[in-house]
Amino acid sequence: MKFRLTMLLAATAAILASAITAQAETVLKWAHVYETSEPFHTESAWAAEEIAKRTDGRYKIDVFPASQLGKEADINQGLKLGTVDIIISGSSFAAREYPPIGVTYYPYTFRDPAHLIAYTKSDVFKKLAAGYEQASGGNHIAAVTYYGTRHTTSNRPIAKCADMAGLKIRVPDVPAYLAMPRACGANTTPIAFAEVYLALQNGTVEAQENPLTTIEAKKFYEVQKNISLTGHIVDHLNTVVSGMLWAKLSDEDKKIFTEVMQEAAERSTKIIEEREKALVDKFKERGITVTEVDRSDFEKAVMEKVSFEEFGYDKADWEAIRAVK
């Protein structure tokens, strides 16, 4: 009888312990629009596992890639609705909540990826991130990842700004992305990303702009034989934690989430930089004409024709970013 009672008590304790553990585990949703082969996904998956380890399994994070929970606008909205807890998204979407943070998309703001990363550790970044956090109801930028430097592919070689005059170019429908092509006299067309290859192939547009990694992944080099290294935007992505989740996290957990997310961002950045370095030679081997452009010529045209105020940017923020070493 005593043995049975002991066994019953042990079983009850095990069930209670299991219930408490299950209750303690918080399940979170991490969403992005990138393919599973991209470092933005592989390193997010790593971060999800790492956070689970470092919090002793108190958090289980499910990562949803490739727009499974919606397009970029949808997942940004999801932070407010509580349908998603963590996202990876560009600052162009953060700028919809707080325009000044979009100043990083003003052409030729960053010298190179190292300058971008230095900016993310600067006082001006802290100020802009805090402005976004307040305007968005508490959404917190935990980390920043280098996305790639945007270059131009076209049907004809482009070496200077004037070479773009009259060029029909596909550009994302984001105001700052339009700045450089329009300053150089190009005709911009906002075609859906999924339709760009076909639009280039059938001549609906004569050019497009994207990082080298995207040009390779989407095989734009098959229908465009010229790549001009315009380098007009050094692009990046933010890892954003919803205001609702961030407010609930203890200081200890905030530290863990931040450290892991920043480490994941560093890992992704390194992969992207290594890929970009190898791609110029790879494109040349495929018979693509790769042109080094006079970037100062492009930058001069932008500065003369594009104002900061029309985008809601503060020139003082831009100047502070340019001064970052």
Structural class: alpha/beta
Helix count from the secondary structure assignment: 13
SS strand fraction: 15-25%
**Strands, count:** 9
Give the low-confidence spans. 16-23
Describe how the helices and strands are arranged.
Elements: H1 2-24, E1 26-31, H2 39-54, E2 59-64, H3 72-81, E3 86-90, H4 91-97, H5 113-119, H6 123-135, E4 140-154, E5 168-170, H7 175-183, E6 187-189, H8 196-201, E7 207-211, H9 212-217, E8 226-241, H10 243-248, H11 251-285, E9 289-292, H12 295-305, H13 315-323
What does this structure look like?
The protein is of the alpha/beta class and 325 residues long. The protein is built from 13 helices and 9 strands. Strands 1, 2, 3, 4, 5, 6, 7, 8 and 9 form a 9-stranded mixed sheet that branches. Helix 2 (39-54) packs antiparallel against helix 11. The longest helix is centred in the last third of the chain and has 35 residues, at 251-285. The chain is globular, with a radius of gyration of 23 Å. It starts with a helix and ends with a helix.
Outline:
The chain has helices at residues 2-24, 39-54, 72-81, 91-97, 113-119, 123-135, 175-183, 196-201, 212-217, 243-248, 251-285, 295-305, 315-323, and strands at 26-31, 59-64, 86-90, 140-154, 168-170, 187-189, 207-211, 226-241, 289-292.
